[in-house]
């Protein structure tokens, strides 16, 4: 196949993963080469720089560890496990394939999505207008609608109405062959993609391509960066010469440099407080969302005529693009954090595409005017359906409410584990769950969100964030556990409890504590073998409610370590209710816990309008 010799292959520069000190690297290099080769399945002679996880620790390079699972050699890339097909030590390449793809079975699809990609799979409700750009895959996939494959990268403006991106993939297919038959594309996917490693690495490296802020790290995909390590075989006199030049330059240019820095800092005082936003946007020039001018926003909204709602971070208006597409435009209020709320939303939601996360179409930054342009959600937010007592409400069916809850859980799980950076939302509540025309839930409002490396189990916050009634207790009490993604799990548990019971867990504005705390009451009912009598529910609906309530009880455990991950929560919601074990009884406060005298972080300051709280640093 041409795919084997394609000059336009996407290469992952695995050398980025091997940034170590020169002493560590040289030691590993000399010791790792003398180990005997390993084998797993059809892959023989696995040798330096690669190693199996069962090999001695002194073999190979630790960053190039492969695993042997079910007699298959497996390469771990982010959260995906890819099957290794071959390793070529002459060309320094390794070929891998997505395990979801099967040879001679065009209905098989990639299990994982990669970015950057050169193919996107799209599920459409109707035939796309520009059909020449797509390859029809409906006959193979067996989709109820229209299923297409599109070659090349995809921006928001490329996605046609009625279509959604199901998954993305990368192949070593030539560009001139990318518009062939789907059978040909599938064969290229089954062939796999090649990764290249650099054999002679050293201390010095440089990164090129897109990077978040001034630090170069793989926040999109390893192949976006190429680390160039140069071996410096300099003579001793050259080192002394460079050292002398450095010392001289330090004296000659030191004073002018200090003066220049002081002048720069003085001038910065006269710049707009939103200059940090412009700096951020200049660094992130390859964002897919479109930048609109303020005059464009006024035209879209007919001078802000139709107001959809108002929250703690701004006002939302209905707008319409020139293409006829309806959008919701959130104009942010005055920032108290140098535009950090705007940066949070663009930096998080601007980089992700998921069916259960609201799509950022574009943004506006012009002086003090800052706006975010989202897809319009005709059914509004979830809060107006949870507490409704009208039987005609479309979400009055418990099964439909369960489907919404499952969609929200999948969206949160994607934020935690589906991206190259871990995204913590910190403000999950009914008001921030939007519903499209089919009542598919979308997570929204990322103004409080934070990005962290996926290997960070505990995160640092300078101030707690969230909404009363949904804030995890570790944000108030530091001794019960560190702040992590489990804070979002707690918020989802409180949301799930309200969705299952169709009532608020407690009124945050009520000062007395004599009212019944619903989660405790629900725990007692189920522990005694009783059902919750919420309405005229069928037996099937009672099982659905019980499943949602028990899963919620697990999520709202006081200690973060007792809560499950979102992946486990999804398993609970998708499994049988008979298999669910009852957790410990939830506590209304840490004082109710055994030995529960816990040190508080600080006193919260809350706004009754939004019940949004902020606290001083931990």
Account of the 3D structure:
This protein has 618 residues and is an alpha+beta fold. The chain folds into three domains: 2-196, no CATH class; 278-375, 2-Layer Sandwich (Phosphorylase Kinase, domain 1), CATH 3.30.200.20; 383-614, Transferase(Phosphotransferase) domain 1 (Transferase(Phosphotransferase), domain 1). The chain is built from 13 helices and 25 strands. The strands form seven sheets. Strands 3-4-5-6-7-12 form a six-stranded mixed sheet, covered by helices on one side. A six-stranded mixed sheet has the order 13-17-18-16-15-14. The radius of gyration is 27 Å and the shape is globular. Its main location: membrane.
Q: Write down the Rg.
A: 27 Å
Write out the strand line-up for the largest beta sheet, numbering strands in chain order: 3-4-5-6-7-12
The counted number of beta strands is: 25
The name CATH uses for the topology of the largest domain is Transferase(Phosphotransferase), domain 1
The secondary-structure class comes to alpha+beta
Largest sheet: 6 strands, mixed
In the CATH classification, which architecture of the largest domain applies?
Orthogonal Bundle
GO molecular function, one term: ATP binding
Keywords: ATP-binding, Glycoprotein, Kinase, Membrane, Nucleotide-binding, Serine/threonine-protein kinase, Signal, Transferase, Transmembrane, Transmembrane helix
Transmembrane segments: 237-264
InterPro entries: Kinase-like_dom_sf, LRK10/LRL21-25-like, Prot_kinase_dom, Protein_kinase_ATP_BS, Ser/Thr_kinase_AS, WAK_GUB
């Amino acid at each position: 196949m041409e795919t084997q010799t394609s000059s336009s292959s996407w290469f992952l520069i695995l050398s980025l993963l091997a940034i170590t000190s020169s002493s560590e690297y040289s030691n590993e290099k000399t010791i790792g080469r003398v180990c005997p080769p390993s084998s797993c399945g059809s892959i023989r002679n696995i040798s330096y720089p690669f190693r199996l996880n069962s090999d001695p620790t002194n073999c190979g390079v630790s960053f190039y560890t492969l695993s042997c699972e079910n007699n298959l050699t497996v390469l771990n890339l982010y959260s995906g496990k890819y099957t290794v097909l071959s390793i070529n030590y002459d060309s320094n390449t390794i070929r891998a394939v997505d395990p979801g793809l099967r040879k001679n079975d065009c209905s098989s699809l990639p299990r994982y999505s990669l970015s950057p990609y050169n193919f996107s799979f799209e599920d459409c409700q109707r035939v796309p207008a520009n059909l020449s750009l797509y390859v029809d895959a409906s006959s193979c996939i067996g989709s109820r609608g229209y299923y297409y494959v599109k070659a090349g990268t995809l921006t928001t403006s490329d996605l046609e109405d009625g279509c959604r991106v199901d998954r993305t993939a990368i192949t070593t297919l030539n560009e001139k062959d990318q518009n062939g038959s789907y059978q040909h594309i599938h064969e290229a996917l089954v062939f796999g993609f090649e990764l290249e490693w650099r054999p002679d690495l050293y201390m010095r490296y440089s990164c090129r391509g897109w990077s978040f802020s001034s630090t170069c790290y793989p926040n999109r995909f390893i192949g976006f960066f190429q680390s160039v390590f140069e071996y410096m075989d300099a003579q001793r006199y050259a080192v002394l010469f460079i050292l002398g030049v450095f010392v001289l330059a330090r004296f000659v240019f030191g004073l002018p440099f200090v003066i220049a820095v002081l002048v720069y800092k003085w001038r910065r005082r006269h710049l707009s407080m939103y200059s940090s936003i412009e700096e951020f946007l200049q660094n992130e020039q390859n964002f897919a969302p479109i930048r609109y001018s303020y005059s464009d926003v006024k035209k879209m909204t007919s001078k802000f005529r139709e107001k959809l709602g108002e929250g703690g971070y701004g006002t939302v208006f209905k707008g319409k693009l020139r293409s006829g597409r309806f959008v919701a435009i959130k104009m942010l209020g005055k920032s108290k954090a140098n535009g950090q709320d705007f940066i949070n939303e663009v930096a998080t939601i601007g980089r992700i595409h998921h069916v259960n996360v609201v799509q950022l179409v574009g943004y506006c930054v012009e002086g003090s005017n800052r706006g975010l342009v989202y897809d319009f959600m005709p059914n509004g937010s979830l809060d107006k359906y949870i507490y409704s007592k009208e039987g005609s409400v479309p979400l009055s069916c418990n099964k439909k409410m369960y489907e919404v809850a499952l969609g929200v859980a999948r969206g949160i799980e994607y934020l935690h584990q589906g991206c190259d950076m871990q995204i913590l939302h910190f403000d999950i509540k009914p008001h921030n769950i939007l519903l499209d025309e089919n009542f598919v839930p979308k997570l929204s409002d990322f103004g409080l969100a934070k990005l962290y490396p996926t290997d960070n189990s505990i995160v640092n916050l300078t101030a707690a964030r969230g909404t009363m009634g949904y804030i995890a207790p570790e944000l108030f009490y530091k001794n019960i556990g560190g702040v992590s993604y489990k804070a979002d799990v707690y918020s989802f548990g409180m949301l799930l409890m309200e969705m299952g019971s169709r009532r608020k867990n407690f009124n945050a504005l009520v000062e007395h504590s004599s009212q019944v705390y619903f989660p405790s009451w629900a725990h007692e009912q189920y522990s005694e073998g009783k059902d919750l009598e919420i309405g005229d529910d069928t037996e099937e609906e009672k099982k659905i409610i019980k499943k949602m309530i028990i899963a919620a009880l697990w999520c709202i455990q006081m200690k973060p370590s007792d809560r499950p991950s979102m992946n486990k929560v999804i398993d609970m919601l998708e499994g049988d209710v008979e298999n669910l074990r009852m957790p410990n009884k939830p506590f209304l406060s840490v004082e109710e816990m055994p030995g529960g005298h816990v040190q508080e972080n600080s006193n919260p300051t809350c706004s009754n309008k939004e019940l949004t709280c902020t606290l001083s640093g931990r």
